[in-house]
Amino acid sequence: MKTTYQLALTVATIFFMAMSLVQFAYAQGKVNIDDGPIKEADWFVDPAGELNENHAGHKNWITKWYGPDGNYENNGGFGATARRDLIDEGTGGKLTQLTLSTVKGLQLTQTIDMEWPGGNGGTRSWEIFEFDPANSHHMNRDGPADNIDTYAICVIDLPADREAVMSPAHDDHAQIWINGEKWYNNSVWTGGAETVDYNVEVQLKKGANVVLYRCGESGGDAYMNLHFDDATHDAADIYPDKAQDQKSFFQEIQGVLAVDPVGKLTTTWADVKRNR
Q: Which of 3, 75, 132, 176 could form a disulfide with 81 if both were Cys (CB 3.0 to 4.6 A apart)?
């Protein structure tokens, strides 16, 4: 009788553990891209095997972003601009998409504005803006609804290196860089503002991780949403947080990036070691 009870208890324990693992995997989403970052030769190759996962109402969608205070307009359709580095073009080479996704590049936005042609939006300074994940037209940002490119930045501060899972939803062509490397490219819309086709395994480092998210849109819905796995959100501080403008954003992340006010010398431990 005792043996039968122990066997039943063991089977029940295994069953509940298995169910918990299934529920955990469902909550995080199935990882179907795990070979990043993307090699330069494959920067514009679309992934295959979309999942069509419904992440509606996910608690960790990132809603607050830092970026140019308006979109690149009249792009001729996302296919016409997708391979162009609009950050490079807008800053005369002072910044690129890759360098903007680094701490050093992010700091330079304090003194460098975007200077796109007048027909494409003109001069853009930098601001904090918010996206409602459930709104399938939030990329418009009070500007043209179609033929736009939007750039959005957030900083993820972590206490230790970790593997994380990144889940983007977008319409249309999305590209994501983290810490100077490209981790995601997909020119196919995901079919819904909170629908995820790819859960991407990424490597995040201790301290500040700069995420640059770009989405090019042609017509119809215009959305770009992003969240990471729950454990990463639990471990991380994500910025912008309370900041409402560029000045308060850099005040907010001063300790994270070792950023000093514009015009002052920033000294980091790496600088000290180099100069010893």
A: 75
pLDDT digits over 136-164, tens only? 999 999 899 999 999 999 999 999 999 99
Whole-structure pTM value: 0.85
- Angle ∠(99,103,106) on CA atoms, nearest 5: 70
User: From its phi and psi, is residue 49 left (phi > 0), alpha (psi between -120 and 50) or beta?
Assistant: left
Percent of the chain scoring above 70 in pLDDT: 83
Residue positions counted in the chain: 276
Sequence-distant (≥ 6) Cβ neighbours of residue 253 within 8 angstroms: 155, 157, 208, 239, 259
Backbone angles phi, psi at 239, to 5 degrees: -125, 145
- Dihedral sign for Cα 98, 101, 106, 112, please: positive
Separation of alpha carbons 124 and 107, rounded Å: 16
Please give the Cα distance from 65 to 213 (Å, whole number): 10
Q: Which of 168, 167, 170, 134 is nearest to 150 (CA)?
A: 170
